[in-house]
Amino acid sequence: MAKGKINVSVENIFPLIKKFLYSDHEIFLRELISNATDATLKLKHLTSIGEAKVEYGNPRIEIKVDKEGKKLHIIDQGLGMTEEEVKNYINQVAFSGAEEFLNKYEDGAKDTGIIGHFGLGFYSAFMVADTVEIITKSYKDEPAAHWSCDGSPNFTLKKGKKEDRGTEIILHIADDSTEFLEESRINELLSKYNKFMPIPIKFGMRTETLPKPEGAKEEDPAPTKEVDNIVNNPNPAWTKQPADLEDADYKGFYRELYPMQFEEPLFHIHLNVDYPFNLTGILYFPKLTQDLNVQKDRIQLYQNQVFVTDNVEGIVPEFLTMLRGVIDSPDIPLNVSRSYLQADGAVKKISSYITRKVADKLSSLFKNNREDFEAKWNDIKIVIEYGMLSEDKFFEKADKFALYPTVDGNFYTFEELQEKIKDTQTDKDDKLVILYASDKDAQHSYIEAAKTKGYEVLMMDSPIIGHLMQKLETSKEKVSFARVDADHLDNLIKKEETAISKLSDEEKEKLKAELEETITNKSYTVQLEAMDSSASPFIITEPEFMRRMKEMQQTGGGGMFGMGNMPEMYNLIVNTNHELVNEILNTKTAKKKERLINQSLDLARLSKGLLKGEELTAFIKRSYEMVK
Ligand code: ADP
Ligand code: MG
């Protein structure tokens, strides 16, 4: 048997790091600014504990583009490195000085916000540069060091000329990466990754207009001054305490996050945990449109104020991806694959924490200001309904504040609704029948009929409501939903007094046979009912089950795909107490009888919105003939 150690040759590893470590070349700048930030935060910590006896001051990081020289400079005023430290931290790939620092200072350094972790970030510079130089001077009393490497594993290290403390990284940009010598491209990267980093970042200068001196003439131009152009906000709202922020601050931060978003958010949730994991952030409920697919301003994920991604799939439960805002957690690694994230235990905990916080916030909004909650309901219901469908934990909580509006604009919780209709709306099996409409105009006559009978009609028009109703029907006892036009109300809801039929049994039989013979369309099932004489003679209803299946097929989900098209199925309710129905029965000429039946059927179809195209044209033409 032979044992040994696999020999990893640096010559081979180096190009691999350059090529495959990061899929996105542009993140090199994020990595180098993260290192500059770490160096500054380390110095801050060391001065605060008295280990570094230097003035911390107001350090900042500077980015400089030298287009002619094809160079990009990243300069910090952090703790710097001695020659020895360069050998340790830079020449050893995958040895993280950040990790070492955190271990050395343990608890005290836990909250410094240090970003580095894997000891690989620095080498991302070689994805865009042929040669990289480091000129660095430590806060310790030692000469500066000058390191240079041309992308092969060979480096040079000599004494440097730098006098002031800190580090300057110089990238000699490669020919295939000259985009990173464009000011606009650098600005783009800074605003994507570094917008909220904790140390001020200077990129170029900008002109500031000063107030005019006293006594200046109208036509005198206002004086100006060149000032450093700081591109980031080092103290974003989510890093502050909720008690220190006003509503206006939250709105202002929303604007900062999404400058192109003109609609104000409905409300926010400030996240703040430090056990069993670290997480801060602010989530916003935006006004949502019915179109669930339009979603470009998304939740952004940060690690210690460094932007990681705005693809939070797997970290935030799916129903909450419709929200906006920021989540920041040092426990979420900067560079990891999505599948890794989804399997990660910490990430799972984060997800259920966020779900809980959102439910709690909604619950307190509901309790503290119901009126306002009702006013916002239409804009937030999709998130809540989707959450109730997809997360059982959320359902339990949301069941207490989810609202069911009526067509007349009243809002009930499920419990309130149950209480309200328990004596009037039950079927023969004592099941609660919850009536609802999905379109006030199209179902107008049905809604009116239900209201005349004193029933409550809900307005349920979200795209996923069919799925939610199904969920409620299975999770609650003795509850069923029926759209107002799903069935004849007297069939749906058990009632004491029913109208007495004016027709004899033989007459009814004859009428039914004649109707079935004349109506050739087999989608209609004829049903005779003795109703009030003022009710319509013909009414079309569509069985709840069939219609809902069709709708759910359209919105997808629930394994409904591939079931093929559902057949059309309608009930034709004929009111045997109506004068017209009597006339149909007693008409002697077959032709006239047929015409009365077809015309009445078409009128019923028209009122249900089922008469279209050629049939509608023929109907109109026939009607004109009749009134002529
Ligand atoms: P990580 O940041 O994960 O520790 P990097 O490869 O990004 O790994 O950097 C390696 C180490 O080099 C850092 O941990 C740090 O000790 C040192 N270093 C890199 N950049 C700087 C800098 N600007 N100032 C001081 N030290 C630095
Ligand atoms: Mg780093």
**Beta fraction of the residues?**
15-25%
Can you count the helices?
Answer: 19
Distance between the ends? 107 Å
Give the C-alpha Rg.
36 Å
Q: Care to count the β-strands? A: 21
Shape: elongated
Which structural category do the helix and sheet elements fall into? Answer: alpha+beta
Largest sheet: 8 strands, mixed
The neighbouring-strand order within the major sheet is: 5-4-3-6-2-1-7-8
What tags apply to this protein structure?
628 residues, alpha+beta, 8-stranded mixed β-sheet, 5-stranded mixed β-sheet, 19 helices, 21 strands, 37% helix, elongated, binds adenosine-5'-diphosphate, binds magnesium ion
What does this protein look like?
It is a single chain. The chain is of the alpha+beta class and 628 residues long. Helices cover 37% and strands 19% of the residues. The chain is built from 19 helices and 21 strands. The strands form 5 sheets. Strands 5-4-3-6-2-1-7-8 form an 8-stranded mixed β-sheet, with helices on one face. A 5-stranded mixed β-sheet has the order 9-10-13-11-12, sandwiched between helices. Helix 12 (444-452) links the parallel strand 16 (432-437) and strand 17 (457-459). Helix 8 (345-368) runs parallel beside helix 10 (392-398) and helix 9 (370-390) runs antiparallel to helix 10 (392-398). The longest helix has 24 residues, at 345-368. It starts with 9 loop residues before the first helix and ends with a helix. The model has no long low-confidence stretch (mean pLDDT 88). The protein binds adenosine-5'-diphosphate (ADP) and magnesium ion (MG).
